[in-house]
Amino acid sequence: MHEIKNQYIEKQGYHDVTHTHHQGHESASHASCITVVPIFNHLEGEQMEEIMKVTKSTSFKKGEVIYREGDISDLLYIVSKGKIRIYRLSESGKEQLVRILNPGDFTGELALFRESIQEAYAEAMSDTDVCMISRNDLQEFLLKYPTISLKILSEFSNRLETSEKQTTRFATEKVDTRLALFLAECMESGDGPMEIELPMSKKDLASYLGTTPETISRKLADLENEGYIKQKSGRKIEILDLDGLLLV
Amino acid sequence: MHEIKNQYIEKQGYHDVTHTHHQGHESASHASCITVVPIFNHLEGEQMEEIMKVTKSTSFKKGEVIYREGDISDLLYIVSKGKIRIYRLSESGKEQLVRILNPGDFTGELALFRESIQEAYAEAMSDTDVCMISRNDLQEFLLKYPTISLKILSEFSNRLETSEKQTTRFATEKVDTRLALFLAECMESGDGPMEIELPMSKKDLASYLGTTPETISRKLADLENEGYIKQKSGRKIEILDLDGLLLV
DNA sequence: CGAAATCTTGACCGATCTCAACTTACGTGG
DNA sequence: CCACGTAAGTTGAGATCGGTCAAGATTTCG
């Protein structure tokens, strides 16, 4: 897979402005932008080569907006380096952090399969490289290799499940519980046995959990006073009593 | 399309218990259980016939549970008659109404494309007929006719968009606003120019909007006092000032 | 018609937001 | 590598929103 040459994916970008094009490191880093994606990682070499032919690469600098609400977008963006912040504005103008994309994650899917515009914002949190596939190229590919559709459907199902679960939490749980559940989920996908590192600032966490930084600060202090957790330096938190935490 | 015979879809049900099988009215009513579904309504006669061969039909009486959290489900359910209530229980045991299915709507999709169990509950709100397709049959069909996958992807995109928008509302808007937005959306899909009929009881509406019946009652009374709406008999509400309503 | 469910209204209280002041951490440029 | 400015985080006090409990009115449906 790593033999795929840059020439296949470097042609020209879709964006004709501001963005500097990916400058082409070693080919392995390019390959990863596709092969790393769960949707595609079962492809055979030939199919992989085919989809990489229609893939373009672009870079965004920290803080740059990749798309915004109202954009007519028909690109699927796959993160190959960096982090992207996906957020929405509610009807009354308040911002909510929806998710953070890491290398291998993708976005743009909501506008990809329907005639519509973006309803969210995507912003590079650091210098970021993305690969892009246009709607037409992707759909052609899906019709040719239908198993990929099933992969995408599976991914959509998961995301839908997550989103609906999240909605139910917002609808029925108070901040304590939402925060505790968030910490518990960090544990699952986590590093050390009983220590986690928050994947975002507390400000972003507040936005993600639908509350304010002040409340996050207080609730974490409460959890610490009650002996469930211990806040360490940086964004690290030691979980002292996971079971207790989940009964909050 | 209407010539499709009952024999194609009446064989035996997947459920070998309690549920009485669909008793077969005229074939037109059967055809509608499939042809009415947006995913399938572009099919040619031949394909339609093929999918109806693997479709089974079952009835549920009011109050019966169609699936529950934890069920290993690999069926797609399509409502042909009646109403189905989809709800979830949060981690702390509180119920939230997720959606109400009407004829033509489908459910079960979340467990269909991934190895997983149901995480929601589906309950017949009235005597209900559903058509069912098994995961294997559906996937086979999708691989054979890839354009249907694109239809389903489109449907999933829409639902994901709706769900994420809903999450953001819960995260950032207060009850007043959520209620006002709900009423406004009833208008869009509504009957009369300035009159809507709530599609559910106020108790269910409270559950759907993540609040309590008491609060719904009070907020509607407030909106009425402020001259934005007028509550009529039944579940009808006259919208007097839509613009004002949306600024609440 | 009557039981049960839904809906309404009031009183009270707790959770969380807002505003404000302050401290701490971080990135940038000299 | 340090100093500074800005952003992030903390903490307190007060206000508000919305939930809970309770009683009563109304509707629905068998």
UniProtKB/TrEMBL annotation, chains A, B:
Name of the protein this chain belongs to: Crp/Fnr family transcriptional regulator
Gene3D superfamilies hit by this protein: Jelly Rolls
Keyword annotations of the record: DNA-binding, Transcription, Transcription regulation
Residues making up the signal peptide according to the UniProt record: none
Domain Cyclic nucleotide-binding: from-to ranges: 39-159
A single MF term (Gene Ontology): DNA binding
The UniProt record lists the keyword DNA-binding: yes
SMART domains: cNMP, HTH_CRP
Keyword NAD: no
Transmembrane segments: none
Gene Ontology CC: one annotated term: cytosol
Ranges where the HTH crp-type domain occurs: 173-243
